């Protein structure tokens, strides 16, 4: 899929409407983590440097179409000013004459921040009249919010249909990384899918078996696959009712030539708590009163062997109950191995979605990956093979 970038436009004197994701965590009224704001800086600064006028459009929380003062973007002004090192002008609306006037008189080294787009119900409805009002504020639309691209909202999808549109620098990096991992990857490709339940990742597993050469299944969901193979998993987290579906995935994998890698050995305990007494046994030897909390050393070696022959890795979900030591061992070891191989240049590694970022950070391995996506829902939908509306609307195809 192709898309335009900032390189395709002359930005001189142009008002550029940038859809950003600055839905940052706030504790006691203060922004507690400004990472999302720091990540949009390259796009905003480049637009200013090239003579354009950035106008930021964003949502914050879930006001569900009503004005909620505690979800106003006003409180982000000081943080934006600190990160962008420029004046940030705020207007307490995102459409209308006041907004249009503010955007028309923006000067050099100034950024306009508009109020939470979700204060209007028409935002999530992708209402054409609302889209037209937003479009009056800018000359060019630049979408830099991959993490909101799975929503077909006015500011993520509608605008791209009526204004000249491009991907921002952050969106560009994300799209390139994802394209490298699943769109047109260097083979062999290995996917690691872990986490709690098969039921939440069915579509993802179904899509991956068609696309990757090896699929490592770990965490609680591996237990359901063991059940599908007729193996007793004791008191482990497992979805007995999903065994038939897990079996269908195993059959589909054979048909697609995808090797499924399940744990050969397991770490078991009697209690779901940190430092619980534990032992290692073969995957088919879990006692009735024990639960599987991690993959064992032989399973880790097997994962290492696959990583060593693979050229591309895509990862979502931990291989065990990683929040509880020592049941983070397999997740840590595999993450560190991927990081080393990436640094050595033999592996392109892309990871993302929910707990994965936390797990890779805990393993001290996130920085070693080629790309770690913080875009929870959008990353998962992309792994499921779905077309993301916000990305599709940018397509030049
Ligand atoms: P998910 O959100 O689906 O990626 O699942 C992540 C959660 O799965 C984490 O909280 C892990 O502790 C949990 N998990 C992974 N493996 C196991 C396991 N063997 N038993 C229980 N919970 C697990």
Main sheet properties: 6 strands, parallel
Helix content: 25-40%
Query: What is the CA-CA span between the terminal residues?
Result: 7 Å
Shape-level CATH architecture of the largest domain? 3-Layer(aba) Sandwich
Based on Cα principal axes, name the global outline. elongated
H/I helix tally: 15
pLDDT under 50 segments (min length 5)? none
* CATH-assigned homologous superfamily of the largest domain: Phosphoglycerate kinase, N-terminal domain
Q: Could you please say which CATH topology of the largest domain applies here?
A: Rossmann fold
CATH class of the largest domain, named Alpha Beta
According to DSSP, the number of beta strands is 17
Strand order of the largest sheet: 5-6-4-1-7-8
**Class from helix and strand fractions:** alpha/beta
The average pLDDT score comes to: 96
Into which percentage range does the β-strand content fall? 15-25%
Task: Pick out its properties.
38% helix; six-stranded parallel beta sheet; 2 domains; binds adenosine monophosphate; Rossmann fold; alpha/beta; 17 strands
Structural summary, described in words:
- The protein has 397 residues and is of the alpha/beta class.
- The protein folds into two domains: 6-173, Phosphoglycerate kinase, N-terminal domain (Rossmann fold); 185-364, Rossmann fold (3-Layer(aba) Sandwich).
- Helix content is 38%, strand content 18%.
- It has 15 helices and 17 strands.
- The strands form four sheets. It has a six-stranded parallel beta sheet with strand order 5-6-4-1-7-8, sandwiched between helices. The protein has a six-stranded parallel beta sheet with strand order 11-10-9-15-16-17, with helices on both faces.
- A hairpin with an 8-residue loop joins β12 and β13.
- The longest helix is centred in the last third of the chain and has 16 residues, at 329-344.
- The model has no long low-confidence stretch (mean pLDDT 96).
- Adenosine monophosphate binds at residues 195-197, 200, 219-220, 237, 292-293, 317-318, 320-323, 354-355.
């Amino acid at each position: 899929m192709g898309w335009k970038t900032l390189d395709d436009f002359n930005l001189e004197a142009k008002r550029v409407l940038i859809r950003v994701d600055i839905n940052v965590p706030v504790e006691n009224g203060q922004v507690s983590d400004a990472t999302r704001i720091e990540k949009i800086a390259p796009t905003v600064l480049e637009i200013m440097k090239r003579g354009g006028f950035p106008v930021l459009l964003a949502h914050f929380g879930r006001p569900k179409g009503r004005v909620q003062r505690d979800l106003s973007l006003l409180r982000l002004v000081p943080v934006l000013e600190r990160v962008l090192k420029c004046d940030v002008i705020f207007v307490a609306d995102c459409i209308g004459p006041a907004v249009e006037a503010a955007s028309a008189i923006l000067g050099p080294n100034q950024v306009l921040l508009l109020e939470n787009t979700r204060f209007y119900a028409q935002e999530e409805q992708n209402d054409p009249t609302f889209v037209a009002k937003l479009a009056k504020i800018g000359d060019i639309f630049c979408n830099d919010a991959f993490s909101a691209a799975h929503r077909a909202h006015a500011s993520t999808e509608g605008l791209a249909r009526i204004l000249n549109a491009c991907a921002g620098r952050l969106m560009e990096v994300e799209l390139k990384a994802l394209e490298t991992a699943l769109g047109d990857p260097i083979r062999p490709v290995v996917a690691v899918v872990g986490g709690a339940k098969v039921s939440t990742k069915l579509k993802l597993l179904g899509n991956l078996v068609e696309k990757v050469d090896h699929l490592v299944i770990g965490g609680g969901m591996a237990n359901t696959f063991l059940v599908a193979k007729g193996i007793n998993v004791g008191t482990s987290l497992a979805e007995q009712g999903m065994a038939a579906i897990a079996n269908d995935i195993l059959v589909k994998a054979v048909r697609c030539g995808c090797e499924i890698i399940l744990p050969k050995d397991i770490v078991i305990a009697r209690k779901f708590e940190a430092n619980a007494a534990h032992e290692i046994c073969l995957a088919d030897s879990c006692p009735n009163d024990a639960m599987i909390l991690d993959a064992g050393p032989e399973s880790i070696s097997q994962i290492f062997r696959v990583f060593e022959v693979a050229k591309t890795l895509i990862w979502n979900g931990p291989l065990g109950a990683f929040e509880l030591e020592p049941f983070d061992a397999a997740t840590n070891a595999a993450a560190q191995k991927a990081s080393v191989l990436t640094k050595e240049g033999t592996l392109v590694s892309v990871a993302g979605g929910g707990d994965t970022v936390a797990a890779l950070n805990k393993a001290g391995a996130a920085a070693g990956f080629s790309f770690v996506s913080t875009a929870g829902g959008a990353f998962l939908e992309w792994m499921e093979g779905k077309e993301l509306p916000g990305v599709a609307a940018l397509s030049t195809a």
